[in-house]
Specification:
Length: 523
Amino acid sequence: MQLTGQSIIGTRRTTGSGVAFFASNARTGERLNPPFHPASDRDLDEAVALAAAASVEYRALARGHRAEFLREIAAQLEALGGALIERVMLETALPEARVRGELDRTANQLRFFAGIIEEGSWVDARIDTGDPKRKPAPKPDLRSMLRPLGAVAVFCASNFPLAFSVAGGDTASALAAGNLVVVNAHFSHPGTAEMCGTAIAAAARRTQMPDGVFSLLFSRSHHIGQALLAHPLIKAAAFTGSRKGGLALAEIARSRPEPIPFYAEMSSVNPVFVLPHALVQRGEPIAEGLHASVTLGVGQFCTNPGVVLLEEGRDGDWLVAALGAKIGATQPAPMLNSGILENYCRLVEDRGRNARVRRVAQAAGDGGAAAALFETDAETFLESPELADEVFGPASLIVRYRTLDQALEIAAAMEGNLTATIHMASGDEEAAARLVAALETRVGRILFGGYPTGVEVCQAMVHGGPWPATADGRSTSVGGRAIDRFARPVCFQDAPASLLPEELRAGNPAGIWRIVNGERTRD
């Protein structure tokens, strides 16, 4: 594919305005062609206006037509094949196997949401039929369901150039719900963004979608992203990135004349609790699993375990030493971009200078981020809130507690996280039950005996958590419930049958599950 460096505004391309910028080879720093032209304010206005104008037409399309669109996007992405994979590897330094896996996931989650559209029950249709003879007042006929919001802004993630970016889960779920999408491309992988945006535009043409169903804006500065979020025709937005960036955007979304839903995934340390009997019975495989999870993707996953809690004593000492040996032997590797690497190195050095924190191990060598392992005691951790801050990269902190009550105190004091993990064995049941009671108020997903890296795309998955893991802990950015973020309930009272959506009509022509007079039925 020949890259143009131009933003995609519905069915046309634009060179925008301002100074062009280039992507960089994430391993060598070499400049990559072509130059990318920042979108102008006029481009932004046109993209959002197109989306708003197409909203009525797109939401009125048959379910099968929207599903066809999502499946065609998946097919167009897969057709890019090696060219897309090569560009992702150049711009991110991610290995080929990881990129291929992420491409598969991106295509599969598009097909996943296509299936949700076709099945149709996600709209949560509810009907309470009227009774004009009811006394003392007639009962109205009430019918409600989830309806799309309108134009949605999607901010691409640096660490998932496919699965959480232009054609990723936010775009897929927003389109599935009947919304139009305007994407703010990430500056560190613009070539990847253009290739994916071109695939979506091609799918829109092939399936005859309305002009404006999708647009893609390039920018090196924060201006376009901030202006996009503030635009009065944008009705919701989704973001995956740093806490600093997420908080700044959340403030814009909140301060608008019309505040809008803003779904931000921002930071998480994903605590891992290794209970005493599990430590004795499975110490070696736990050390291996933790090492693999901490260093997976050079630690550039939102679910890497940044804090591991162990009881004081010889068994815990052994695990710390074993994990430290593995961390120390890890080969340094390049990160997604130079800014992320610089920030990681600074945070590791800051942690190493803390007199109450011991540097257990740090990998030696050049060529990128050096994995690191630190250790502290529970009292220090509780007294030093900064030790619970995310270090984005292949580093983790061991926290040693004396009693279960102390571990529970830590669990209750931690900020909101995406995940928490409990390693338990026979004899740990009571402790685990108490931990679950504490953790379910602090995280979105509790794992047992596993490792937090890796998120299954399925109906039951929750990839969210209380603040500041996400801006809205009631939501998930992965799984079937992700579609709910971009819809709101609308109720029709005593509406003529001809004006009701198909999903709410008598006889259930949509064939979906509904709640009718309090009973779940397909009748």
